């Protein structure tokens, strides 16, 4: 077997090692354009988990690598004159040059042929190779040569960064957030060997320009960074090695394999340096390829196994990197945060670390976070304990004169179970049980303002006396048997109306019994959907009047709060999105024009809804489609509604057009809530694949939302909030007297269960290499 590897970085060298171990008789050659001892950059960083993987796959190289590593447990966050240290992280740093030399030495031991200063321009010279590995880095020549096949997507990020080094010793992975006269600068720094540390400096393009960095050479740039971070460098110099300022390219390739050629490492996919995963991904690519080659019947089959088996893990890492890099690109959003909340945001930015696991590894730090959050609540007029506070989820919140006891919200979820718009006993049990379950706030499903405003024949409405009476019965039950507040969500289906029940074909047009539908423009949802009529001025007035009439009925029902649905492609959302609004009158064109009618409706509702009761608006913060609404638009939309008197923005996304491409994942819509809250400066509620109280605490403590709505968890567990309260010891949650014995029991059991689980997790957690090294070097006690 003959293998040609183009690129002598970590991916190419480690792949050569593993394949040669697997097939000692194979002829494996690595071609590298640079010299053997050339390297660019300074250190690389791995987690303990990554080192465990290396240990499993090649013990000799693992041992040599770990002999050279600098180990640390702490992450230190420097911000506005404070330092917060968070332990238990288990990281290791190594010189990039040393890593390459170790891998080169190990490859030679195994019989791999290494050729340096060989620039491969044409893969045709490897016509006799059985396998060609393209590991030629982020600027891969061969990925670009076969661009039509590999179909790479390159997202060049906005922030500028430069990779430098220093002689400054460090005992933690260090983040420094430095305010300057030009704007914020960030340093990502860690020690990789005695007397040497890596420093990556980052800033936004406007700050970069104002600081006069444009056009400076390496020496001049290092001098400027030494001025800015001199207080921390303490006289230690900054070192350069091709340390030019540049933008980071996020690379994703639709295909990784072409014939017997396969992309590895940065050539196929990149991950932002803020999560330190570039070299990790490269070497784990090599592991995945070797594992695929182990038992596959052919090289073709092995490459298919590699691509399909490895892609999900790579994309998960890239998603975490994406979320992390966006946090750093918009660090100015959080600059006014309390420093401990800011540090918590740094730690949880990529969603890999959450409230609970951070509390296990750094309990003192999380205790400080809890006190900071409770102090904010106290400063907003609530008499809460700031010395031994409840977790954020069980801190109260106020909107106008409405106070809610906790931040857990039952998300608005259509039940499609009404009878001609009339809520039934199903709805009474549905809403009543979730109120008894302890949630601070419940939202109704989208309640339609007229018969022709329904999504489906099963949608609930509020346009006649029978419906009003049924809703009043539900609201009365909630108020009589719980401390939960209940919000009425009003909406109009627009072009997505006259469709089947969800379980019969979501958004598919009715076969019979339909009704005329309306939208901002005559654009059908599906090609075979009913073509909506464009709403004219008379139609707008009728719709607005129907909203007002429904709101007045809602007030008579006793609802505590009112929400206007302007999301998910329904009628009002169809005005907002340019993908569904093709109008040429004053209600089309610019965002301000497209918002005109939704704001008219909102202002009409605000005029009739009692001034002491809050109002919210649900928006789609992105259409997940080219040319549609994006996060910046969402901020402008939120500001417009805030000026009109909105108290809360319910931040959802998508469902506007059928060809949308949402990026799903845990808490996947939370970044949009974060952006709206911290740029528009308005209270937000986040929603979207939030499934645990741990996630809710993480979101709230980091300042990404003020309320957390959970849908599916509440569908299967009406007592989700009560169980979470028991788990965290929040015994102030309301419980009807009929259920008190059950509450007392679950609180007793949960306290024991939580203690047992935490003890098990602590015992099961292996010691980090930093801890093991500290123990090994600790002097023995005198006898």
Automatic annotation (TrEMBL):
It comes from the Bacteria. GO terms for molecular function: FAD binding; FMN binding; NADP binding; NADPH dehydrogenase activity. CDD domains: OYE_YqiM_FMN. Residues 393-725 form the NADH:flavin oxidoreductase/NADH oxidase N-terminal domain. Residues 2-316 form the FAD-binding domain. This is Bifunctional salicylyl-CoA 5-hydroxylase/oxidoreductase. It comes from Bradyrhizobium hipponense. The lineage of its organism: Bacteria, Pseudomonadati, Pseudomonadota, Alphaproteobacteria, Hyphomicrobiales.
């Amino acid at each position: 077997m003959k293998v040609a590897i183009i690129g002598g970085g970590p991916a190419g060298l480690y792949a050569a090692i593993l394949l040669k171990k697997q097939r000692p008789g194979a002829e494996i050659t690595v071609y590298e354009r640079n010299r053997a001892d050339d390297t660019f950059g300074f250190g690389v960083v791995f987690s303990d988990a990554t080192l465990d993987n290396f240990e499993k796959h090649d013990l000799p190289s693992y041992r040599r690598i770990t002999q050279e590593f600098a180990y640390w447990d702490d992450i230190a966050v420097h911000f506005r004159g404070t330092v917060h240290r968070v332990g238990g992280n288990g990281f290791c740093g190594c010189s990039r040059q040393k890593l390459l030399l170790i891998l080169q030495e190990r490859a030679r031991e195994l019989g791999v042929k290494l050729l340096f200063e060989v620039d491969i321009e044409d893969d045709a010279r490897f016509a006799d190779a059985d396998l060609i590995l393209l590991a030629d880095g982020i600027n891969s020549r061969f990925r670009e040569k076969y661009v039509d096949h590999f179909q790479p997507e390159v997202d060049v990020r906005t922030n500028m960064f430069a990779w430098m080094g220093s002689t400054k010793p460090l005992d933690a992975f260090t983040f420094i957030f430095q305010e300057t006269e030009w704007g914020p600068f960030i340093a990502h720094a860690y020690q990789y060997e005695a007397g040497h540390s890596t420093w990556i400096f980052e800033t936004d393009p406007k700050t970069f320009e104002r600081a006069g960095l444009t056009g400076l050479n390496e020496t001049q740039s290092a001098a400027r960074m030494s001025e800015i971070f001199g207080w921390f460098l303490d006289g230690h110099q900054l070192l350069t090695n091709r340390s030019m300022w540049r933008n980071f390219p996020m690379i994703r390739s639709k295909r990784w394999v072409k014939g017997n050629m396969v992309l590895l490492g940065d050539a196929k996919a990149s991950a932002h340096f803020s999560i330190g995963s570039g070299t990790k991904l490269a070497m784990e690519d090599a592991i995945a390829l070797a594992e695929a080659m182990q038992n596959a019947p052919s090289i073709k089959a092995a490459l298919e196994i590699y691509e399909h088996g490895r892609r999900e893990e790579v994309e998960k890492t890239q998603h975490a990197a994406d979320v992390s890099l966006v946090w750093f690109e918009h660090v100015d959003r959080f600059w006014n945060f309390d420093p401990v909340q800011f540090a918590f945001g740094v730690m949880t930015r990529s969603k890999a670390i959450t409230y609970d696991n951070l509390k296990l590894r750094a309990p003192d730090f999380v205790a400080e976070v809890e006190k900071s959050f409770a102090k904010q609540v106290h400063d907003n007029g609530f008499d809460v304990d700031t010395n031994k506070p409840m977790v954020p989820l069980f801190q109260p919140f106020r909107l106008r004169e409405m106070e809610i006891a906790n931040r857990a919200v039952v998300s608005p979820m259509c039940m499609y179970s009404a009878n001609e718009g009339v809520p039934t006993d199903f709805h009474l049990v549905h809403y009543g049980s979730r109120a008894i379950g302890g949630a601070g706030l419940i939202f109704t499903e989208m309640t339609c303002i007229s018969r022709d405003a329904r999504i489906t024949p099963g949608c609930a409405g509020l346009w006649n006396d029978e419906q009003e009476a049924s809703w009043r019965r539900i609201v009365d039950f909630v108020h009589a048997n719980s401390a939960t507040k209940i919000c009425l969500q009003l909406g109009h289906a627009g072009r997505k109306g006259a469709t089947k029940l969800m379980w019969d074909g979501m958004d598919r047009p009715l076969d019979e019994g339909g009704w005329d539908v309306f939208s901002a423009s005559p654009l059908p949802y599906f090609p075979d959907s009913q073509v909506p009529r464009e709403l004219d001025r008379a139609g707008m007035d009728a719709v607005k009047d129907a909203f007002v009439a429904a709101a007045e009925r809602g007030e008579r029902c006793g609802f505590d709060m009112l929400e206007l649905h302007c999301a998910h492609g329904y009628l009002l959302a169809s005005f907002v999105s340019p993908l569904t609004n093709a109008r040429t009158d004053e209600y089309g064109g610019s965002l301000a024009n497209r918002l005109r009618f939704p704001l008219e409706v909102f202002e009409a509702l605000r005029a009739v809804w009692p001034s002491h009761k809050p109002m919210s608006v649900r928006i789609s913060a992105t259409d997940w489609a080219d040319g549609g609404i994006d996060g910046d638009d969402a901020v402008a939309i939120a500001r417009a509604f805030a000026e009109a008197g909105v108290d809360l923005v319910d931040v959802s996304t998508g469902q506007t057009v059928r060809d949308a491409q949402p990026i799903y994942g845990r808490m996947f819509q939370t970044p949009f809530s974060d952006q709206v809250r911290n740029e528009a400066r308005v209270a937000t509620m986040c929603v979207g694949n939030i499934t645990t109280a741990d996630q809710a605490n993480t979101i709230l403590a980091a300042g990404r939302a003020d309320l957390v709505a959970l849908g599916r968890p509440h569908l299967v567990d009406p007592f989700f909030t009560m169980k979470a309260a028991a788990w965290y010891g929040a015994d102030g949650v309301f419980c009807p007297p009929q259920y008190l014995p059950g509450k007392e029991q679950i609180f007793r059991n949960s306290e024991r269960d939580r203690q047992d689980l935490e003890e098990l997790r602590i015992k099961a957690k292996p010691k980090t290499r930093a801890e093991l090294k500290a123990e090994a070097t600790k002097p023995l006690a005198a006898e």
